[in-house]
Specification:
Elements: E1 4-8, E2 12-19, E3 22-29, H1 37-60, E4 68-72, E5 77-81, E6 87-88, H2 89-98, H3 106-124, E7 127-128, E8 137-139, E9 149-150, E10 157-158, H4 162-179, H5 184-222
Antiparallel strand pairs: 1-2, 2-3, 3-5, 4-5, 6-8, 7-10, 8-9
Helix pairs in contact: 3-5, 4-5
Length: 223
């Protein structure tokens, strides 16, 4: 089975290939040489289980994610649905800005709203992504009308606490502000949509988010 390397990160590699007649992405997790082999196998398997469960759980609630076709613990690999001609929201934003649209244009504010509503849906079902960035969100043609597809649930968990959901939002907020210039209004609109759409529980998460931000600032100031 021929494989084409798509990308490589700290946790593993992604390959594009064919599997039983499907175009798929194979996610291979590295072994960590600094860990005891038995511990490494245990941690890798647990993270693979958590990712497969989170992806399946999301789909059961109508949240667009790749279908899980196979989990191979011996090879430390998950076989996932491939979305043809997909782009990350990160690259969509870059292209939008390159085409002279500002981050507070109707197109981009609509994108912020869609992300906010999607995260409300995910959090209302107690799914914590764990690594929310614009690189972990995909669009398919036509991009401006596409459902948002969430990927890379390797650090996911299931938790009903507002604190964990607030940290999820904080990670995304920091990722957007540090990756994309002039996105303060975009982020504010995303979070306002989250708060206004999600009811009392979402308001509690936003309140916790403010506390998480304060802790983050103190950490930056005092180490």
């Amino acid at each position: 089975m021929d494989r084409e390397l798509v990308t490589q990160g700290a946790e593993g590699r992604l390959y594009a290939t064919e599997w039983l007649g499907h175009s798929v992405i194979v996610k291979h997790r590295f072994s960590k040489q600094y860990r005891h082999p038995d511990l490494d196998i245990y941690i890798t398997n647990e993270r693979m289980k958590a990712e497969a469960r989170a992806l399946t759980r999301c789909r059961s609630y109508g949240i667009k994610t790749p279908a899980v076709y196979d989990v191979d613990f011996n090879k430390s690999e998950i076989v996932l649905e491939k979305f043809t001609d997909s782009v990350t929201i990160r690259n969509f934003i870059y292209e939008t800005v390159k085409n002279k649209l500002t981050m507070d244009s109707p197109v981009m504010l609509n994108m912020a709203e869609r992300i906010g509503k999607l995260l409300v849906k995910m959090h209302s079902n107690n799914i914590i992504h764990g690594d929310l960035t614009t690189s972990n969100m995909l669009l398919v043609p036509p991009y401006d009308l596409s459902d948002i597809i969430l990927i890379d649930f390797g650090l996911s968990s299931v938790d009903e606490r507002a604190e964990d959901k607030a940290v999820d939002l904080y990670v995304l907020e920091r990722a957007i502000l540090s990756t994309h210039p002039n996105t303060e209004h975009f982020v504010a609109h995303l979070l306002a949509t989250y708060e206004n759409t999600g009811g009392e529980s979402a308001r509690d998460v936003i309140k916790r988010l403010n506390e998480v931000r304060l802790r983050g600032r103190k950490k930056l100031c005092f180490g």
